[in-house]
Design goal:
single chain, mainly alpha, 84% helix, flat
């Protein structure tokens, strides 16, 4: 199902202007990173939280 959703998202990107594509791609990238962090097993809650903040900060750069 996830691959089908991604396929539809890519098709939608092809139909819009470049600025829209960049905004949508940036959002998708954030969602993929958040999915990774949700399922990541950390040693403790605070360590995982710090890792999540670091990943999101790097994604915005």
């Amino acid at each position: 199902m996830q691959s089908h959703v991604m396929e539809l998202a890519y098709k939608a990107l092809d139909l819009h202007e470049i600025s829209y594509c960049q905004a949508i791609a940036h959002y998708i990238k954030q969602v993929e990173m958040m999915e990774f962090l949700v399922f990541k097993v950390g040693k403790d809650l605070y360590e995982s939280k710090d890792e999540a903040v670091g990943v999101l900060q790097r994604a915005e750069d």
